[in-house]
Automatic annotation (TrEMBL):
Cross-referenced CDD domains: Glycosylasparaginase
Name under which the protein is recorded: N(4)-(Beta-N-acetylglucosaminyl)-L-asparaginase
Domain of life: Bacteria
UniProt cross-references to InterPro entries, sorted A to Z: Ntn_hydrolases_N (IPR029055), Peptidase_T2 (IPR000246)
Length: 318
């Protein structure tokens, strides 16, 4: 039977490489999602997820994460998590709870400690220096504080036909204390139904949560649309509506996969993503928004692009 994973951003690649091996060996989509996102959370050079994620306006790292099981619609989520090493693990654990499955703030660390999950200071010296530099830039040039909102979001299909999805993010750099975006919100940042497919999002949460686009993508797939047709219709229709009725629209990027392992992507900005299936080894792609009403232009990331990416994220912070 077909199996596969799709995820937002280049940073998902190492996690996808591990997850797809597990799926090839008849592992579960649930385990593949958690293991893959943990790898992203643990890598200190990814500044928008987990350890090394950029802090809020007062220098605290607050993390959001969610997990959904497409077999039974169990959902677990955390928002404003502090000092919990792997929020995705806590979110998955919460998905098994009948009540209290979405925790926020101090409640996340208390639950994680009680359940035996690892706690740690999630602020790295590198992230702290980036925060200090931004404070200085703001004081000198009146620069906008907000920058970066790259959520790692994944959908997985295993050989048993089971599907799951997950998200993890440190949210908007320099955000207000307690701010939460779309990432942990069902139907907005993520949604999956094993009988149909799943979709997950990344971008400006304040705008993404206005449209419930992950749910809408899955709903459109249920009508017979391919993942590419569904995600493009859901995303670009709402982008145009938001631009018409509000006058502007932030960055929107969504990935989708159906229960046959077919996938699709929609975006209104340049965007990288990763796909692996039983027919495709883990591959990093770049997507560019369509100039008309068509589908985005998608190409395999070049060696030059990949080298430049690695150099950029690991460059010393002065």
């Amino acid at each position: 039977m077909s199996y596969g994973m799709i995820a937002t951003w280049r940073m998902a690649y190492d996690g996808i490489r591990v997850g797809i091996v597990d799926l090839a060996n008849c592992g579960s989509s649930q385990k593949a999602i958690v293991d893959a996102i943990k790898i992203v959370e643990d890598y200190p050079f990814y500044k928008s997820v987990g350890y090394g994620g950029l802090p809020n306006e007062v220098g605290l790292v607050e993390l959001d994460a969610a997990f959904m099981n497409g077999d039974n619609f169990d959902i677990g989520a955390v928002a404003g998590s502090r000092n919990v090493k792997n929020p995705i693990v806590v979110a998955e654990k919460l998905s098994h709870e009948r009540f209290n499955s979405f925790l926020v703030g101090d409640g996340v660390a208390k639950y994680a400690s009680k359940e035996g999950f690892e706690l740690r200071n999630m602020l790295t010296e590198r992230a702290k220096k980036t925060w200090e530099n931004r404070l200085e830039e703001m004081s000198k040039s009146n620069l906008s504080p907000y920058d970066g909102h790259d959520t790692v979001s994944m959908v997985a299909l295993d050989q048993h036909g089971s599907m799951s999805c997950g998200t993890s993010s440190s949210g908007l750099f320099m955000k207000k204390e307690g701010r939460t975006g779309d990432s942990p919100l069902s139907g907005s940042g993520f949604y999956v139904d094993s009988e149909i497919g799943g979709a997950t999002a990344t971008g400006l949460g304040e705008d993404l949560m206005k449209g419930c686009l992950s749910y809408e993508t899955v709903r459109l797939m249920s009508t017979g649309l391919t993942p590419q047709e569904a995600v493009n219709q859901a995303t670009m229709t709402f982008v145009k509506k938001l631009e018409r009725r509000k006058g502007k629209c932030g960055a929107f990027s969504l990935v989708a996969m159906n229960n046959q392992g077919e996938w699709g992507v929609a975006t209104n900005v340049e965007f990288s993503f990763v796909v692996a299936t039983d027919r495709l080894s883990p591959t990093i792609y770049l997507a560019y928004p369509a100039e008309d009403d068509g589908y985005p232009t998608i190409e395999v990331a070049s060696h030059e692009w990949l080298d430049a990416y690695q150099a950029r994220i690991t460059a010393p912070i002065k």
